[in-house]
TrEMBL record, chain A:
Keywords: Cell membrane, Membrane, Sugar transport, Transmembrane, Transmembrane helix, Transport. It comes from Paracoccus alkenifer. InterPro entries: ABC_transp_permease (IPR001851). GO terms for molecular function: transmembrane transporter activity. The keyword Magnesium does not apply. It is a multi-pass membrane protein. The chain crosses the membrane at residues 33-52, 59-82, 88-106, 126-142, 173-196, 208-231, 243-268. GO terms for cellular component: plasma membrane. This is Simple sugar transport system permease protein. The lineage of its organism: Bacteria, Pseudomonadati, Pseudomonadota, Alphaproteobacteria, Rhodobacterales.
TrEMBL record, chain B:
It is found in: Cell membrane. It comes from Paracoccus alkenifer. It holds the Pfam family ABC_tran. The lineage of its organism: Bacteria, Pseudomonadati, Pseudomonadota, Alphaproteobacteria, Rhodobacterales. One of its GO terms (molecular function) is ATP binding. This is Nucleoside ABC transporter ATP-binding protein.
UniProtKB/TrEMBL annotation, chain C:
Keywords: Cell membrane, Membrane, Sugar transport, Transmembrane, Transmembrane helix, Transport. This is Simple sugar transport system permease protein. Its main location: membrane. It holds the Pfam family BPD_transp_2. The chain crosses the membrane at residues 12-37, 65-87, 94-111, 117-136, 148-168, 202-220, 249-267, 279-295, 302-322, 328-348. One of its GO terms (cellular component) is plasma membrane. The lineage of its organism: Bacteria, Pseudomonadati, Pseudomonadota, Alphaproteobacteria, Rhodobacterales. It is a multi-pass membrane protein. GO terms for molecular function: transmembrane transporter activity. InterPro entries: ABC_transp_permease.
Length: 293, 524, 358
């Protein structure tokens, strides 16, 4: 039986991924493959927790999480857009750096409790509402506004966008920062609203799952929502099975989200490969842009 | 009006003796890149209502010049004037606002976006969606350029894509329209239709700056031609007053060397291709039942507009894609299921079109690029262990025999000019003494001297008894080289016919004619 | 305005200088970070980079250098080959864990028998385990086109949970008083991977790392297969044209790097680690990615880079002990090092030029 509480749990489990994946979808639509989502999330988780703890306000925590995520994403942005470094390697570096940095500065916060999240309409906290609202907003901005059109153009063919006079690097830097801010909010949600405390490496691969969900979603915001809820469902199912005392070791049950991610990725990739449908990936995704003569 | 060092007359004389005034003028434009003077003191002017050709070889500086006018490049020195006012656009937005439109050689289109979205991206203040669609429909109708605003670019043919680019420019009401090699993707019939559109625009007062290296179309359609060589203006002439030969001499700076076709004898059948059909791919054109035979000592020319299956055909012949049994046979042996290496061992060699990244690795030295395809036939490896000395030797032989201008075999391939690298690539395959050689666009983007050398080398190879297949978009080249000609259109190959006596018009029809394009309606 | 201009070829000295500059920049930035946190920057840097080798306690820490460098070099040697080809195995950590488990499984199954066959069989099992774990992303990519980056990374999390399950379940030592963790293989002579010469820290894994460096050097610079791997990384279409099947290449690179990572795991579990625990993975698989880049994907460079990063591990522990620097210092250092490396690497591909605004 899927009751209201289960749905609530599902939405709550999906929310960090939803934020992070929406942000990554925006970055990838501009042609940037940022593998540093995990690093940006964990940075947001710590910054958000620290700010919420210091001010007693979860709202301040989310703002700080967004700011920290955006700030750290700009390291990636400058390296890949201005120094033309490899996006895969730089994204990995961002993840490693974020995990290290937060492990170092997070020590004083271990064992501290977060201020409680105020409830919202229908018992759903406003961060979940915000995440849900962002889906149509992102869709609208990407598909119905001039800025969204330029962003998609840059991601689809950066040479053409440059030839028409658009500032490819600036557009991408902006998209990277938005992606960083949303990943930071996602991370902050984990520490402030789900776990309610800070532990090292607490995002536990959520950033990587968000990356997979962007592929699953075919780079569309509505697809991201579906992917995040699917992931939330798997997470809740796993918890329910654990609580019901199913005769499977807890360690094996906890593999479920990762295995589900692989399975989803495989199904989507296979569909693109064998249905003859080309991938919906932006044409310039992951390619460095260097204005030639 | 025209004063200064370069006194140029800028009047276009119409039949009825009406003169129209200068619209655009460049004075002393210079642009230097490390090692290259792309533009050197370039001055010329374009009158309103004229079709003005910019003629020059690859690397003569045409692209740099028009990108300067379009605001993509800032000149190191010199000024421009447009309609009497100084023209110094900071970026393409400013150039468009001043009335300059540009149709790019490599389309600046976005494949996954719709026609309407592409057009909106080319405008600085696009109207709302519904209004935009209506205006696209208006312009399409006025100039005979039918377009469906909702279609995605990836589903359009090359000719239709160009239409999108042109409509995008026209919606900005340009005073000066720049077209960079627009007919390289069109059949002769489609090119005629394009010129009808351009005539109509010129008649309404738009100045057209037309870049090309196709001498005949410039002589037929352009009012004046400015000829560039090595970044400098050689001369501005009325192209109708000069023969193609004279124009070529001005462009190249020397008499063109003619190739020697003598001394060849067609022998036994070497290469047989039959029923070659490639799996439908999400991108590109799939081959449909392609078949032909090439004899020893014979050159088969395969013409067609790019994107009609050329890439797929050379991949199927080089072994990058394999096929059903009996589709690719060399000297009676079936190579259909074999990859590139076994095919090379058997004597079927290939040289793909793209030098940088396909036929050669730009970051690697010429020695390493010699290993790329020569490893087996030239014994540059023994049981997998590379013999670097033998490889260097082979690279040096290619460099010497094919006059590749480079400091030495340790130079990175990417550091060579297009012509020199192409000589290296073709030389690498020819020196391996192939039974059959397939080349795609052997002289694309290559200067005239290197092109002539490459064409002669292909003829000589056939003279020694090899079977040669030349795939090219350059119809003049195919007429010059090939004994028989076949056209590749939408993945299908026409039956090969003898080249002798073929006219460009017949070839154009073989290439699919006008592909359903309409002749411009005469504007009311 | 400062502009980048592509170079046709990288000068040899710059190829060596760029990682060195990155190391120096990391030390400077790291020192600044320490100063911000209220530590003496000079003392901190000296404790991390100098004292383990020449300081008062170096008698203990020096052998640790090879102990830590061995697995890093072994794993990075394999990863570098894939990175050269543009195949991104970032799941070496998972292959390391599975290799360790498979090798340990052989030992635990054979226990308490003694025999000369046991250790070689464990090495084979470790390599096979890592290979199989690496072949999962390879096979999925070849069959369905799924990104090997995401799949190999997801499999790290799966492998970590397999290790935890093993430590709590099937492999739990019957003599462990209910504590999680397998038998300690160091106490099982036929399965142990001991220090080969006292005071050096060298065990079989270090020998294997040395061999791996030699073998990958031969492959990449002398063998036609290595040549084609390099071509594939620089120009995939040229590689196809030369006769490389992309599917074979993906399987070769992921399988080989998986096997080497699996062997590293086995040498660790039978040697310095001793047992499978719920936290068996120790991050070597991720650090090895940095080692591969710092060594500019060249076997000799990887050898030196492995030693340097091993030094940061030991130095980090020492600094934690002596100066109470946080344990995560090393991780921050490694992350910064990778950033600086990538940044300075730009200099090898592009020339910096000062131009008046365009």
């Amino acid at each position: 039986m899927i009751g209201w509480t289960t749905l609530l749990l599902l939405m709550s489990a999906a929310t960090p991924i939803l934020f992070a994946a929406l942000g990554e979808a925006i970055a990838e639509r501009s042609g940037v493959l940022n593998l540093g989502v995990e690093g940006m999330m964990i940075t947001g988780a710590l910054a958000g927790f620290a700010a919420a703890h210091a001010t007693g306000s979860p709202l301040a925590g989310f703002v700080a999480g967004a700011a920290a995520g955006a700030a750290i994403s700009l390291i990636f942005g400058v390296l890949t857009q201005y120094l033309l470094t490899n996006q895969v390697a730089t994204g990995l570096a961002l993840t490693m750096f974020g995990l290290g940095l937060t492990a170092m500065f997070g020590r004083p916060y271990e064992g501290v409790k977060a201020p409680s999240m105020p409830g919202g309409p229908l018992g759903v906290n406003w961060a979940i509402w915000l995440g849900l609202a962002l889906v149509p907003v992102t869709w609208f901005v990407l598909n119905r506004t001039r800025r969204g059109l330029i962003l998609r153009g840059v991601g689809e063919n950066h040479d053409a966008a440059h030839a028409l006079g658009y500032k490819v690097r600036l557009v991408r830097l902006t998209a990277i920062a938005i992606g960083g801010a949303l990943a930071g909010i996602g991370g902050a949600y984990v520490s402030i609203a789900t776990v309610l405390q800070w532990t090292e490496g607490m995002t536990a691969g959520a950033g990587w799952i968000a990356l997979a969900i962007v592929v699953f979603a075919g780079w569309s915001p509505w697809g991201v929502l579906a992917g995040a809820w699917l992931f939330g469902g798997v997470a809740v199912l796993q918890l329910r099975l654990q609580a019901a005392g199913v005769a499977v070791p807890v360690q094996l049950l906890s593999m479920a989200p990762y295995l589900a991610t692989i399975i989803v990725l495989v199904i989507i990739s296979a569909r693109q490969k064998y249905r003859g449908r080309g991938s919906a990936a932006p044409g310039s995704l992951g390619r460095p842009f260097h204005a030639t003569r | 009006m025209c004063n200064g060092r370069n006194r140029l007359t800028c009047q276009k004389h119409d039949g009825d003796g009406v003169t129209t005034a200068e619209l655009f003028r460049a004075e002393g434009l210079s642009k230097t890149y490390p090692g290259v003077r792309a533009n050197d003191d370039v001055s010329f002017c374009v009158a309103a209502g004229e079709i003005h050709a910019l003629l020059g070889e690859n690397g003569a500086g045409k692209s740099t010049l028009v990108k300067t006018i379009y605001g993509l490049i800032r000149p190191d020195a010199g000024q421009m004037r447009l309609g009497g006012a100084p023209h110094a656009p900071a970026d393409p937005h400013a150039a468009r606002a001043a009335g300059v439109g540009m149709v790019f050689q490599h389309f600046s289109l976005f494949d996954a976006l719709t026609v309407a979205e592409n057009i909106a991206l080319g405008m600085d203040a696009p109207p709302r969606r519904a209004d935009l669609s209506r205006r696209i429909a208006q312009v399409s109708a006025a100039y005979g350029l039918p377009l469906n605003p909702a279609r995605r670019i990836e589903s359009l043919s090359a000719g239709e894509r160009q239409r999108v680019e042109i409509v995008r420019c026209l919606l900005g009401n340009p005073r000066l329209l720049i077209m960079d090699e627009p007919t390289s993707v069109l059949t002769p019939q489609e090119a005629e239709i394009l010129f009808a559109t351009l005539r109509q625009l010129a008649a309404q007062g738009t100045a057209i700056l037309y870049i090309s290296h196709k001498l005949d179309e410039i002589r037929t359609h352009c009012d004046r031609a400015t000829i560039l060589r090595q970044g400098r203006v050689v001369s501005t002439v009325n192209p109708r007053d000069h023969s193609a030969r004279e124009l070529a001499a001005m462009m190249v700076g020397a008499e063109m060397r003619l190739v020697d076709r003598s001394g060849r004898q067609a022998g036994e059948v070497v290469l047989t291709v039959a029923g070659l059909t490639s799996a439908p791919a999400s991108e590109g054109t799939s081959l449909q039942d392609v078949g032909f035979q090439v004899r020893s000592g014979e050159i088969l020319g395969i013409g067609g507009v790019a994107g009609n299956g050329q890439e797929e055909l050379i991949a199927a012949l080089s072994g990058e894609t394999t096929g059903r049994p009996g589709t690719v046979m060399l000297d009676g042996g079936d190579l259909s299921a074999q990859g590139p290496e076994p095919r090379r061992r058997a004597g079927l060699l290939a040289a793909p079109e793209d030098r940088l990244g396909h036929a050669a690795v730009p970051e690697m030295s010429l020695t390493e690029n010699a290993i790329l395809t020569g490893a087996t036939r030239q014994q540059l490896q023994k049981r997998g262990v590379i013999d670097h000395r033998a490889a260097r030797c082979f690279a040096e032989t290619i460099i010497a025999d094919f006059d590749v201008r480079t400091p030495g075999p340790a130079t990175a391939a990417g550091a060579l000019s297009g012509g020199n690298l192409q000589k290296f690539v073709i030389g690498r395959e020819i020196l391996q003494n192939p039974r059959a050689l397939v080349v795609n666009q052997p002289t694309w983007g290559v200067d005239a001297g290197a092109a002539a050398a490459i064409r002669q080398a292909l003829l000589d190879l056939a003279g020694r008894g090899a079977a040669v297949v030349v795939i090219s978009q350059d119809l003049d080249e195919l007429l010059e080289l090939s004994d028989r000609f076949a056209a590749l259109n939408n993945g299908r190959l026409s039956a090969p016919v003898a080249t002798e006596g073929l006219t460009l018009e017949q070839i154009g029809l073989m290439l699919g004619g006008a592909h359903g394009m309409e002749v411009a309606h005469v504007a009311a | 305005m400062l502009q980048l201009e592509p170079r046709a070829a990288t000068p040899w000295w710059l190829a060596i200088a760029s990682p060195l500059m990155a190391v120096v920049a990391t030390m400077v930035a790291g020192g600044a970070l320490f100063a911000l946190m209220g530590f003496d920057p000079v003392a901190s840097i000296r404790t991390i980079f100098w004292d383990p080798l020449f300081g008062p306690a170096s008698g203990y820490s020096r052998p640790q250098l090879l102990v830590k460098a061995g697995p890093l070099i072994l794993i990075a040697s394999g990863l570098a080959i894939g990175f050269r080809a543009g195949i991104w195995n970032i799941g070496a950590e998972g292959q390391y864990i599975i290799g360790g488990i498979c090798g340990a499984a052989v030992a635990l199954a054979a226990y308490p028998a003694e025999g000369a066959w046991i250790f070689p069989a464990m090495v084979l099992a470790g390599a096979a385990g890592g290979w199989a774990w690496g072949m999962i992303p390879a096979t999925l990519r070849n069959w369905t086109g799924a990104s090997e980056i995401l799949v190999s990374l997801m499999l790290v999390y799966v492998a970590q949970r397999v290790a935890a399950w093993m430590a709590f379940g099937p492999m739990r030592s019957p003599e462990g008083f209910g504590m999680p963790g397998s038998r300690n293989l160091q106490h099982y002579p036929s399965a142990a991977n001991p220090e080969l010469a006292a005071g050096t820290g060298a065990h079989w894994g270090v020998i294997a790392a040395g061999l791996a460096v030699l073998a990958t050097w031969f492959l990449m610079s002398r063998h036609i297969r290595g040549f084609r791997i390099r071509v594939a990384g620089m120009a995939p279409r040229a590689a196809r044209f030369a006769g490389v099947r992309p599917e074979t290449l993906v399987a070769f690179c992921l399988g080989l790097s998986g096997a080497l990572a699996g062997m590293a795991g086995l040498f660790e579990v039978s040697g310095p680690g001793g047992q499978i625990t719920d936290s068996f993975g120790s991050g070597y698989g991720f650090t090895a990615i940095i080692v591969a880049f710092l060594g500019r994907l060249h076997p000799l460079g990887i050898l030196l880079a492995g030693l340097l990063l091993a030094l940061t591990y030991i130095g980090g522990e020492l600094a934690q002990l002596m100066l109470q620097l946080p344990a995560a210092t090393v991780q921050v250092f490694q992350g910064m090092l990778l950033f600086f490396l990538l940044g300075f690497d730009t200099l090898t591909r592009y020339r910096l030029r000062w131009r008046a605004a365009k």
